[in-house]
Amino acid sequence: MNQLRYGHNSTIITKSLVVGVEIGIPSPEGYIPVIPKYVSCKNSAWKKGTISFCRILSEYGPNGILNAMRESGMKLTYDPIYRAHMVYISLDDIIEYNNPKKLFEKYIFHEYKNIDPIVYRILEEILDDIDIKYVGLTGSYSLGMQNNFSDIDIVIYKEKNAENILKSFLSKTQIIECKNNFGGVLVEGPCLSWRRGRIFNKELSWTGIPSEISGNCPLLRDYRKIRIPTYINTITIKVDEGQPSALVYPPCVKDENGRYIVSFEYNTAYLLYTGGNLIVSGLYNGGSLFIGTREYPGYVKRKV
Prior knowledge:
Blueprint: E1 11-14, E2 18-22, E3 31-41, E4 46-48, E5 51-55, H1 62-72, E6 77-79, E7 84-86, E8 88-90, E9 94-97, H2 100-109, H3 117-126, E10 135-138, H4 139-143, E11 152-157, H5 159-172, E12 181-182, E13 185-188, E14 196-199, E15 202-209, E16 231-239, E17 252-254, E18 260-263, H6 269-274, E19 276-284, E20 288-291, E21 299-302
Parallel strand pairs: 11-15, 13-21, 18-20
Antiparallel strand pairs: 1-2, 1-9, 2-3, 3-5, 3-8, 4-5, 6-7, 10-11, 12-13, 14-15, 16-19, 17-18, 19-20, 19-21
């Protein structure tokens, strides 16, 4: 099934004209889990051809995603594996499914004459140390729906490249905002432009993607073997700094006692990657702790 999917943050348009982004976790065969992001409407700043789309996703994270799922009008299917209602799109119900790598290649090499010079300059600057075959284009630019206020959203494939783009963002971009609540998940860390920043007066964001769906996390590689813990707990952990598996979706690290910390909220990645003494709260079973579930969003913070 993974070979039929392009991975986390790939953009999709359904026959009912709902625009969604793929969630990079295993799913039932023939279906793709998505977050509905836009629905067709009468008039909007986001347009694809003559069709307007209105944004329904106010924020990512468990609460924002659930609200968008409800507003989309799409069928919610309860998945006992994740113990949550999901929007699963059948491959037969998709009219456009965008491969981020192919789109980036097309954008840079075949449509470069139409690229805003500032956008080209930004990509050239921020991707200086990245092999562009490991870069993908997502968000409104991948759909041809961008406007003057649109972020440039990219995906970076493989852990080593995610480490490089992290360094690039920290050294070359400016902070846009300081935020610690991501749809219910609390991330109490330093205010840095580690994954979303401003450069040349334009906003840019990135997300790390493993080579295969959840390939960075042994607990999530096989859909049939996924076991989400049932008990809420808060524990103090020590995590070795620099585990690359923290920087691709879903962030996943091991603490010094061999326990896995898994997060369905990508904005926890920086704290999990830099490691040290952390306090984490989520669903726990003694051997693993999951942050970012809708059942209990949880949090991560540095132990002072």
